[in-house]
Recover the amino acids of this structure.
């Protein structure tokens, strides 16, 4: 898992926890970045690897 103030990258091994884990990550990034949840995006960058980040606000 890697962090910066506006994103987090996670490797989620257990498929049964993907939804819950991503919801928590979205809340975390939204709060730290001061952005509405609607501006937080999730990208899949590999098998079981997800990046949650603040998307374009424009």
């Amino acid at each position: 898992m890697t962090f910066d103030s506006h994103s987090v990258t996670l490797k989620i091994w257990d498929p049964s926890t993907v939804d819950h884990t991503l919801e928590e990550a979205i809340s975390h990034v939204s709060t730290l970045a001061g952005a509405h949840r609607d501006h937080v995006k999730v990208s899949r960058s590999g098998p079981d690897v997800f990046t949650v980040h603040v998307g374009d606000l424009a």
